[in-house]
Amino acid sequence: MDDKGRIAGPRSVSPEFLKQLAGWGLTTAEILYRMPDHKHLLQSFVWQEYDLAPHFPTLRKFLVFWQEKLEGPLHSVRIGHARLLRPAEIRAIGTEIRFH
Question: Residue 13 class from Cβ within 10 Å (0-12 exposed, 13-18 middle, 19+ buried)?
Answer without folding.
Answer: exposed
